[in-house]
Structures are given as C-alpha cells and as structure tokens.
Design goal:
alpha/beta
Length: 186
C-alpha cells in the first residue's frame, strides 16, 4: 500500500537515498531540506526529477517547520509517515566542544525532531494512524571515544522516540528507531 512520506534532511546521503528508494517503491515522497533555492538547489532538482515533492524545511526554526510540514501535507494530499533523518555529527575531544557547539548538535538532532513531530502529530492523531521513524545511530546505544556530543544527542533522541512510542500507542501512531552503522557523510 502506497504511503505519503515526509523525510527531513533529504539533500544528501542517507536522506536522499531513502527518498529515492521510497519513490522507486511507489510511495509519495516529500523531501524536505534547507536551501531549496540556494545551496541545495541541485539536490532539490534531482529529487523533483525522480518524482519527489520538495519543500523548504529547517528543523532548527519553528516557523520553517510549521510551514514545511503544512506544505508537505498539502503537496502529498496527507501524511502517513515522518522520517526524522536530519542530523549533524561531530568528532573530537568532548572538552574541546563549547556549550554553543553542544547546543547546536542538540538543536538539530533532538529539538529539531521534536519540532517536526509536534507539527505532524495533530494530523496523524486526527486520522488515527501514522508512523514516526527516528534515524538514530548505533552510537545511540553505545559510546565511542571522540563522539561524545553526538553520542549524547542520539541517546536523547532514542529516549524521546521511546516515550513517543508509549504516549502515542493509543492513537494508532507508531514510533520506531533506526540505528544505522557508520556511513560516509559530510
């Protein structure tokens, strides 16, 4: 059965691959990203040519998320699945990261997901069904040295996703975690 899917962080690597794969399987895909008219214009064009609807969405900006999720629902004629893929990673000694660095990582990897879910959930609850997919990492289960801020953000994401699973179960909305292994990304 074809689903209407919103994917965050679709301009590169994993997000783009998810979008292309789902389009190939006949799903309606809304690929969201920052800089649709700017730095990611090429990726946006490629995804449009592949059959995706493309919307501007910056997970760190409340207004952008609200507008992007509304545009996604309009473009797809509804929404069944949200793939929270947008994320940032870092490498280095924890002591070298400033509080501002930590805030930025959590702003994207944790608070950005919460913003997107918060914008999409009224629609999913109203229709009595939906799926939230949270792209985490194996580093949301165990730690590796030099990935401290990233590890912490993915552990927080997994805690949030697990809470969504319990809180939303009575509304017909599922919440799952995907933990990819290492992947070459910018």
């Amino acid at each position: 059965m074809s689903k209407k899917v919103l994917i965050t962080g679709s301009s590169t690597e994993v997000g783009k691959l998810i979008a292309e794969s789902l389009i190939g399987k006949g799903h309606t895909v809304v690929a969201s990203m920052r800089g649709v008219q700017g730095k990611n214009a090429g990726a946006a064009d490629e995804l449009r040519k592949a059959g995706a609807h493309v919307v501007e969405l910056d997970v760190t900006d409340e207004a952008s998320v609200e507008k992007g999720v509304a545009a996604a629902i309009e473009a797809a004629g509804g929404l069944d699945v949200v793939v929270n893929n947008a994320g940032v990673g870092v490498i280095g000694l924890q002591e070298d990261f400033t509080p501002e660095d930590w805030k930025h990582i959590f702003e994207v990897n944790v608070f950005g997901v919460q913003r997107v879910n918060r914008a999409a959930l009224p629609h999913l609850r109203a229709q009595g069904s939906g799926l939230l997919i949270h792209v985490s990492s194996l580093l949301g289960r165990f730690v590796l040295p030099f990935f401290g801020p990233y590890n912490a953000s993915k552990w927080a994401l997994e805690g949030m996703a697990e809470n969504y699973r319990v809180e939303l179960s009575g509304f017909g909305v599922d919440s799952v975690i995907v933990e990819p292994g290492g992947y070459g990304t910018d």
